[in-house]
């Protein structure tokens, strides 16, 4: 029997029903997984937290540059969210900890012309998002997954977490966020 988009479109919903989970939590074409699949563009970058920093710049009044310690000294937020990947897997009820991106954007004082952000990762990956999307109360600069520091394969030490968008917008190995007045394409 040939696998059709209709069959794939219903697989995750059937899995959810079998587990007693609301099937509407699984987007069409997705399947549920207990694993945390690893997808990365290129090799994992070298990591030295003593010299690591994070920058927020662009259309802001006050650019930020934070060391690892300074980032971890900021107020921390815990969220439990469903994540979905464009490669068709979904993982429900994932637990994350990190700094709300909204808090950093407010601290940097986004200029009125700031409408988009570009996330830059070590290794050259970039992804763009509308500013209003990253102001949600579940968008994190995440450093902890399931109660443990992020593993290198999942973006250590820091990744962007944007649960309401497919996971390719949750850039791993995050180092910089640029606030922009005009739309620019990211890696894809």
Features:
18% helix; 188 residues; 6-stranded mixed β-sheet; alpha+beta; 4 helices; single chain; globular; 5-stranded mixed β-sheet
Described by the principal axes of the CA atoms, the overall outline is: globular
- Strand tally is 11
- Estimate the mean pLDDT confidence: 89
Query: How is the quaternary structure best described?
Result: single chain
Please tell me about this protein's structure.
The protein has 188 residues and is α+β, with helices and mostly antiparallel strands. The protein is 18% helix and 32% strand. Strands 1, 4, 5, 8, 9 and 10 form a six-stranded mixed β-sheet that branches. Strands 3-2-11-6-7 form a five-stranded mixed β-sheet. The model has no long low-confidence stretch (mean pLDDT 89).
């Amino acid at each position: 029997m040939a696998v059709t988009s209709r069959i794939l479109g219903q697989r995750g919903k059937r899995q959810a029903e079998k587990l007693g989970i609301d099937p509407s939590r699984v987007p069409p074409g997705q399947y549920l997984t207990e694993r945390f699949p690893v997808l990365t563009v290129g090799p994992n970058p070298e990591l030295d937290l003593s010299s690591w920093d994070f920058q927020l710049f662009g259309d802001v009044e006050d650019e930020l540059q934070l060391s690892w310690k300074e980032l971890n000294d900021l107020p921390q937020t815990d969220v439990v969210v469903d994540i979905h990947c464009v490669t068709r897997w979904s993982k429900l009820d994932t637990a994350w900890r990190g700094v709300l991106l909204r808090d950093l954007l407010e601290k940097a004082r986004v200029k009125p012309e700031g409408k988009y952000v570009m996330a830059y990762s070590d290794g050259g990956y970039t992804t763009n998002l509308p500013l209003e999307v990253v102001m949600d109360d579940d968008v994190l600069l995440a450093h902890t997954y399931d109660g443990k520091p992020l593993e290198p394969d999942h973006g250590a030490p820091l990744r962007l977490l944007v649960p309401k968008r497919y996971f390719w917008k949750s850039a791993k190995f995050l180092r910089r966020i640029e606030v922009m007045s005009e739309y620019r394409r990211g890696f894809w």
